[in-house]
User: Fold these one by one.
Assistant:
Number 1:
Amino acid sequence: MRRTLMLLGGARHQVPAIEAAKRLGLRTVLCDYLPDNPGQHVADVFYQESTTDREKMLEVACREHIDGIISFGSDAALPSAGYVAESLGLPTNSLASINTLSNKYLFRPYLAEHGFNCPKSVSFSAEKDGGSVLALCSGMRFPVILKPTDSSGSKGVTVIAKPEVVAYDAAIAAAREFSRNGILLCEEYIERGYPQVIGGDIFVTDGRVRFWGLMDAVRDESIGGLVPVGEAFPSGLPTDQAVLLKREVQGLVTSLGLRFGEMNLEVIMGRDGKPYIIELGGRAGGNLIPQQLQDVSGINLTEASVRCAMGDEDVDVDFDPLSGEGAPIATLVPHARESGLFAGLDVDPALDRYVYRSEIFAKEGDHVERLVNGSKSLGILFLRFPDASTMRRLLAKAPQLVNVRVR
């Protein structure tokens, strides 16, 4: 009898996990609340249920006699996956550590209390007004960032430049729209010493980071620069700073007792030379980061994630970019700078020559919106360059070289 894996989420970027499970001979049970999710056409069994309803997920898991559960590329469903796994004695990182990683109002205090580098921050109810939150933030250095504590993809994030009540009111309204738990966070903006935010994924087995997929996050400053519009491997971070970053990340993995799995990372190297872990998501990154890192390293991280979820941690994922392995490979997210109807995509020949794969989600005539968070991306371009310097030179001009036509 085939063993069964339950997957929470069947969005486009989650389908590769379903496909990997089926290649491994597993029976797949998918849950997703959306009736038009593409994963339902790949999985063996589909339930249209909310993956954030952990009691419903446990009910489905018991009915289907599952042997493992995974929330691949989804923050929202991670606590449900952890709850089901702990309830049934299945492989998982602890629910306590999952909850800490999934909620910034728990994560920021955890960092501070355990001696990790952390900006000054305060959490509060989404029902508070701008004046009361401004008072809570007394003593913080501006600019500050106000955000939901349980969202991803830069949803609901606002940079506030000055201590003005009207600015706080607008930021609270924007964050409230993407908050499920009703708790928001305000924290000091970290001035970057290294110009790019470090993103990418790591992979942990037996409590140790074995795969270091550190990359430079590509941003489009013409639309605010908050939302990543791509990732570039290798990172240009100097070796001595990379060593500090890796020490901080491994220390956090150990402190939280994380056992296994692919995890999404966002780190800022501050002007003080210290690494600040902004996010350590307990799941694979979006924008097809696992596929990009597979192209870089030759290691199938998606399959490794599935195997770990089924209790097989004997996966060979050893990869360290400091050793010089891997080709210069980047992704870019085509995005609209204004709302309207999608009329096509133009890629300058100087950049187009390096595109080796593209996945465009929008069709001509579709309504598209200005990129304000990760959910507004229109596709992914994969680019392979002859060397890192060519990659960085062209990516610096990417906003001028990739144009989404809107009418």
Number 2:
Amino acid sequence: MEKAMHQNHGIGYAEYNQCLHTRLQVEEDREKNHRESLQLIDQLQRQVHG
């Protein structure tokens, strides 16, 4: 988990846990990535089934 956290967000899990501002930023980034992924899936499904 530590390696993935660092690769994806450039910070370690300890820093994520210690700093609320950092944690909120990481969670905002995760939410944004999730929304973008859902949009991509929707676009691909429309192309396949369109």
Number 3:
Amino acid sequence: MSKAIKHQQLSKFKNSLARRSEHKVLERAVTKNGIYTTSADYRSEVSMTPVFSIDLDTGDVANQKQSGRCWMFAALNTMRHDMKNKFNVPKNFELSQNYTFFWDKLEKANYFYENVITTAALPTSDRKVSFLMTTPQQDGGQWDMIVAIIEKYGVVPQSAMPETFNSSASREFNNTFDLKLRKDAVTLRNLVADGISEKELEDIKEKMLDDAYRMLAYSFGEPPTHFDFEYRDSDKNYHIERNITPIDFFNKYVGWNLDDYVSIINGPTADKPYNHMYTVEMLGNVVDGRPVRHLNVDMATFRNVAVKQLQSGESVWFGCDVGQSSDRQKGIMDTALYHKDELFDIDLSISKAERLDYGESLMTHAMVLTGVDLVDDEPTKWKVENSWGKKVGTDGFFVMSNNWMNEYCYQIVVNKKFLSAELQEVLKEEPKVLAPWDPMGALA
């Protein structure tokens, strides 16, 4: 039986507050300065000094601006770091995020249409249909999704397909594109209900994709099929490669075997036992492309493989909940940054698993690990390359405490050679399929 708050209870609350000798001081401080400033601990800044025993030279940071392409920036940044070592490209060199953005949007449209057709017999009130229609497409993604794009379309330097207004500020396009996709969903569901033939349905879907391609071309520019790669390296030597395709460019200048790179997660919830494989229903972008697959491991293994890859000289893509206990301007991510529990004298502790199960946290942002500070072979803090430009952190680089990694990091991508032989065998396992709304399906 529900019970309302009674006036007698309000009197108790008021008296309880009055008995606290510090309440007037704290009320003035919090009302004037806010919770974060009042509860901030300067000692966090001292411990998060940006000095690291392993510190990769990765060049300038990039800037995703007003778009949700962090996962894409982080992936392309790991690849350009390698290009810097192999080809001595200048420190401000970037691979085109606009190019992969274009193809991701087109592929997500097709992926959405296929899911609409698959679920067309379900009512619009069904949770899966509601999930699809809530966000037909968005800027975010995961590692396996950028791999699916690159395997199909390759990559190009930013000079071959530079940024546009809409790639740097994607809200207008997303609002318009989602309207089109929802309108198309109405059409597709009605056609399925009318018993249209598979051939007719495919023809109509192709017309929808033709319209989508035109919208994308107007907004982002049309992707190149061939281009000239011309640059001066860091030693001012001139280089040019004429009439190269995006696939050939990736093979020659990045040259990674993308099958070697695997997603490792730390999802300590009861439904995901460690040392097993997982995937997420309806999560992806390229139909028949690389599926999303996660190997769930304990946090000690998670940290260990990240350290090994950094020690080898290679940066690490990772996904986290960046808004938790972080200061954007100072570039600090530390669980000791704020003491909100002490400020309010309330126990606010909650486990990582409970945060996932109860909606308090999930992956919201992807960045790159480019360094780590080891003390007695154990990590204490990590160097993070963000994609928010140079005006935040230390020239765009952040410092993350090891405890913050433990609590708020959910995914890394590593070369499988850094995994134990036992875990490499687990990679062959058929993954358990998680629900579309599982937190491990969150898009960075």
